[in-house]
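Handout, page 2. Input:
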Amino acid sequence: ADRLGVTERDERNRPTPAALTALVGEATAQISAYLMTLIEARRSRPEDDLLTRLVSARRADGSAFTDTELM
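Output:
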């Protein structure tokens, strides 16, 4: 911490690992929900964009990619 210039006062104010984990989890849930909204929208209303191409893409066997794979 000293080499980065983090003072003792700053050290006391930093978030705990548990708090950081909770923040990351919440951010991940929000971005996942947002991406699912976009994926669903492109499936029902394709546009001329990369996401529509990804949603419309098929494997060599003709199967579609799962939502998890798209995200």
